[in-house]
Structures are given as structure tokens and as C-alpha cells.
Amino acid sequence: MKRYVLILALVMALAAGFGCAKKTTAEPGYDDGLTPEMRAAIQQITDARVYFAFDKFNIQPEYKDMLKTKAELMKKYPSIRVRIEGNCDDRGTQEYNLALGERRARAAYEYLVTLGVSPNQLEMISYGKENPAVQGTGEAVWAKNRRDDFRVIAH
């Protein structure tokens, strides 16, 4: 019986601790200090993705203007830091896809740096096939998973 009471007390203490955790969502009246222009810039940086052909990591021409827009916004707001996340479809080994995802993230990184973005504003990570945007199989699904995502990690 004592053991049961002790376990119950520990569970309740943990539950109370989690219930009192700091909320991460903005409450009404919350001010994050961002101007509407900077919020719009962050949204524009994170919304657009770069997609890749099967087993490729080169930036295709149709994404260069979008990356130029991201670069201009990052140069205008040098406090913005972005993580480029390289992703692959689920074909291939985990090791192969991690390396391919890194090459995809590096391709966007290097292109942004050639456009004048400070390397200090960028970091890269590869998720390989571990972070699919769409579940399933088939070329239409795989094409949506071969991508670079852009996450603002500081502003």
C-alpha cells in the first residue's frame, strides 16, 4: 500500500510540473517585438521550399528566383538565422539518404552565400528520409519529400 501511495504521489507531482510548464503559444496581447515587415519576411523565408529531382542535389532554375528573394530578405534583416533542412524520399538506405539530404542542404547554403548571405546566418541539417512531408508511395509523394525546408531559428 505504501508503494502505491508513493507512486501516486510521484505521478501527481509530475503531472503538476507539466501543467505549470511555460506556454509556447502567444496569448492575446503578447508582443514578440517583431515588426509586421519582419514577420512577413520570416513567413516568406519559411514558406517556399526547394524541390529536387530523384537522386539529385543541384538547384533547378525554377528555384533560383525564390532563393534570391530569401537572400534579399536575409540581407535586409541580418539578425535572421535560418536552418536549411535537407530531405529525401524513402527510397535508399538511411546512410545514403542522410548524405544526399546534406548535399541538398549544402547546395542551397552555397547558393545563398554566393548571393551575399552571411554564412553566420545559416546552418544545415540532413534528415534523410526521416522527416517526410507526405506519407505514402509513388512518384507524386516522393517528389514532395525530396526537398529543402527553411526554418527561421533566430530573429
Q: What's the layout of helices and strands?
A:
Layout: H1 2-19, H2 36-47, E1 50-51, H3 64-76, E2 81-87, H4 94-114, E3 122-128, H5 139-145, E4 147-154
Parallel strand pairs: 2-3
Antiparallel strand pairs: 1-4, 2-4
- Provide a count of the helices: 5
SSE topology string: HHEHEHEHE
The coarse overall form would be: globular
| Percent in strands | 15-25%
Could you explain the architecture of this structure?
The chain is of the alpha+beta class. It has helices at residues 2-19, 36-47, 64-76, 94-114, 139-145, and strands at residues 50-51, 81-87, 122-128, 147-154. It has a 4-stranded mixed β-sheet. The longest helix has 21 residues, at 94-114. The protein is globular, with a radius of gyration of 21 Å. It starts with a helix and ends with a strand. Residues 13-26 have low confidence and may be disordered.
Which descriptors would you attach to this protein?
46% helix; 4 strands; alpha+beta; globular
Quick synopsis:
It is built from five helices and four strands, in the order H-H-E-H-E-H-E-H-E. Helix 2 packs antiparallel against helix 3 (64-76).
